[in-house]
């Protein structure tokens, strides 16, 4: 579960508009008045939805502040499988994909209510893996499945690979995925208990206690003892946040932030 997460209605609005709005200043997009030959503004407001922003192929961020130089590989014993809501996939502000940039064992599956992903189903049958579904423990009907973070150590001591399954979507989407996916019903539920407050600026969370997907992952890594991977993901998330926010203001960062500098040092080691 991620709590990026305002309502579906909120996240459905296009967060790209402010970035794109100012991109129609070029003469070529303006019609010319046939009488005077002078440019005149379009009759209808120009509807840009980020389509005019030049994006990097690698990181999908605006090229103005590309994230690629800060991409570093980390290692962690625990893995992530993201079960991503179809509406979340193409959002540039989605932070779930940052996890896979850092940890190459990460797998992303699209959630469809009626058609579970075949690879995911096969993984769930594979005894090498010990998957946990990350979800709050606030409902009584699955209380018997709830485990604590120490369960992660227990499975790895038993020689299995701990896997965190994160439901990547808005709060409502995550709840729906949790409730409507019978193949997840047998898995232990691991709630993330954390005092951490979100540092995510690109979407406005309902509460500062609602962490976005990358932050949930960083916190799970930290609590399960994968401290180095946690620190790298945290820095990469900060770099993403700052790069994206600057590009929205049409500002090119003139110097790398401290998180960016740490990532660069990691990368050159
Ligand atoms: Zn890039």
Automatic annotation (TrEMBL):
Q: Which organism is it from?
A: Modicisalibacter xianhensis
Q: What is this protein called?
A: tRNA-uridine aminocarboxypropyltransferase
Has UniProt tagged this entry with the keyword S-adenosyl-L-methionine?
Answer: yes
- Which InterPro entries does the record cross-reference, listed alphabetically? DTW (IPR005636), DTWD2/TAPT (IPR039262)
What sequence ranges are listed for the domain DTW? 52-249
User: Which GO annotations describe the biological process of this protein?
Assistant: tRNA processing
- Which GO molecular function annotations are given, in alphabetical order? tRNA-uridine aminocarboxypropyltransferase activity
* Entries under SMART domains matching the protein: DTW
Keyword terms: S-adenosyl-L-methionine, Transferase, tRNA processing
């Amino acid at each position: 579960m991620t709590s990026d997460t305002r309502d579906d209605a909120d996240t459905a609005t296009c967060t790209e508009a402010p970035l794109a709005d100012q991109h129609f200043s070029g003469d070529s997009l303006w019609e010319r008045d046939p009488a005077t030959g002078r440019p005149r503004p379009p009759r209808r407001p120009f509807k840009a939805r980020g389509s005019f922003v030049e994006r990097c192929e690698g990181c999908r961020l605006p090229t103005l502040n590309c994230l690629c130089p800060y991409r570093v590989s980390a290692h962690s014993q625990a893995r992530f499988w993201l079960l991503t809501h179809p509406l979340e996939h193409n959002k540039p502000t989605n932070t779930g994909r940052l996890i896979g940039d850092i940890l190459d064992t990460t797998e992303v599956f699209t959630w469809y209510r009626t058609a579970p992903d075949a690879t995911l189903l096969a993984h769930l049958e594979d005894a090498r893996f010990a998957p946990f579904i990350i979800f709050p423990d606030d409902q009584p009907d699955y209380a018997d499945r709830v485990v604590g973070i120490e369960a992660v150590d227990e499975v790895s001591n038993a020689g299995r690979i701990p896997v965190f399954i994160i439901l990547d979507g808005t709060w409502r989407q995550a709840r729906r995925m949790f409730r409507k996916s019978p193949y997840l019903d047998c898995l232990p539920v691991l709630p993330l208990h954390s005092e951490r407050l979100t540092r995510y600026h690109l979407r406005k969370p309902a509460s500062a206690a609602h962490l976005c997907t990358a932050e949930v992952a960083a916190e799970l890594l930290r609590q399960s003892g994968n401290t180095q991977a946690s620190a790298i993901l945290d820095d990469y998330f900060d770099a993403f946040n700052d790069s994206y926010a600057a590009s929205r203001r049409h500002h090119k960062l003139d110097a790398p932030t401290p998180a960016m500098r740490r990532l660069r040092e990691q990368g050159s080691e």
